[in-house]
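Memo to structure team: turn this sequence into structure tokens by end of day. - J.P.
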Amino acid sequence: MDNVARILVVDDDPKVRKTLADILKIKGYAVVSAENGAAGVAETQRIFVNMVLLDLSLPDMTGIEVMEQIKAESPLTEIIILTGHASLQTAVEAINRGAFSYLLKPYDIEKLLRHIARALRRQEMQQEVVRLSSFPVMNPYPVLEISADGVLSYLNPAAAKIFPDLVVRQPVLNMLGDLSVVLGGEAVVREFAVDERVFEQHMFPVEGSDRVRIYMMDITKRKTHEARLKYVNSLLLVISRINEYLLVAESEDVLYRFVCEALQSLDGIVAVIIALKFPDYVLKPVAWAGRSEEADVVVPGLRLRWDRTATGGGVMGAAVCEEKPVVVSDVAHDLRYAPWREIVERWEIRSAEAVPLTVEGETLGVLAIYSERQNAFDEQTTEFMIEVANDIAIGVHSMRLAHNLRTTLAHMRESMESTVEAIATMVELRDPYTAGHERRVAQLACAIGREMGLPERQVEGLHVIGYLHDLGKIAVPAEILSKPAQLTEIELAMVQAHAQSGYDILKRLDFPWPVAQAVLQHHERLDGSGYPQGLKEPDIILEAKILMVADMVEAMLSHRPYRSAAGFAEVNSELLQHRGTLYDAQVVDACIRLFNEQGFAFDNESGRPAQDEGTSDLT
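Reply from structure team:
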């Protein structure tokens, strides 16, 4: 059991702790668990733990705080961060502070096991340095000893082989820094570079002497891996930012600029350009970002093509023409950049990559990225760039579909409004005395709806309902509609039937609003005294309540062959007298406010409300 690696799982989710414990035990690891940060720290203080699987989101403290406390007590303990997507940036910060790696939830178990194995191997190497510290001559890693005055007193064979010039120059103080801390009894771990190699040095005081012993471990591969991991992390963060921005981008141009600026923020990136594909083999730059201040002048003037000429569009033209990613590892010696050699040298471009923006088999354009380093774009980076390009292409495609849909809906709305107004005009032609009534009722109904704070979509429905509310009069003989005298009982019944007739016509039409129902109910009254069904307040829809007030007010204010137009005082009296009995109180109040406070007036030409001077009120 002593040789079994012990793993601590710190997670507030009991299901996660149990699942990981079961899997890790099957794989031969000893497992302990903790439900919060404090319990996890306490567990590492109780026993030595080789590995900690640490959730960043804990109820009592942050994962970063837990990691720092564990590392302070047990520097050799390796930590792997387990985090949700929302904590990606914090996970990257944890890596920079000493965590071995991180995995996003939900994570692949096989991938987690590989990370654990690699972390434990690194731990074994560090432990080996400590184990061999008692046998410096046999140690395969460099071992040095230095006195308090900075004189090199010992160099083991491994150190002599790697650092032969140390014996001659002895630049020990410059390399190792102040020794007083170590001689005071505190171990120090530092990193330093020799040529292209990176070493981690562990400095310990030699017991019973004034010397410091330094053990060195070549960590070049590890640092290369860490640098690569850091770069990959930055790529992931950029992709995450771009994906989030796709949800809120207002236009293609804004999206293109954001992508260029996000990618240009990556380490070593000199410039980023997005160009769109046009007929006649033209590639037109539409967005860019770069270190050089002259980018805003140079990039728009680039003459790029996507045909098969050797230098038509550099890496961008090649990617569009071949419809696949194209990488140039050494731009300085690539013939495709001959026309722009001066720019390449001035901007210090060393390598480039271009990825076509393709969606549903159509190439929209190209994303190009330029680096200050040769061979900057390996297979993994290319995969990331393809993901970015695909996200951009899908986002742009969605924007264009949405734009086309909005345009189509606008045309449909205009067509519907024209049709509705044409139908209303047909009714007016049969009754010239009420010409303009439908338009004015629609205008007032919409104004009441807005005054009541209804959603604009519902107000659009009031516009249609207002125009069509008297459609049923098309079934009433014209001589009855225009009769200048009192109607007989039979004639009145024929006129009142227009509400049912209008409903029968409109119920077959699929409107997004309750048009037919409102037309049927617009002559009902809250107390049940209306027609055709004698409905009472709870059974009458809001649109009909608004329409009945708008219809009554417009009718009273208009001249008819059999009576003169009423004044505003009479209309006001009618509204207040029957507020809450015949007419809905909120609708009445909104209508009175429109005339008395908002200065509402009918616009007989367009049907839009006007606030002109001289508007009368209802008082």
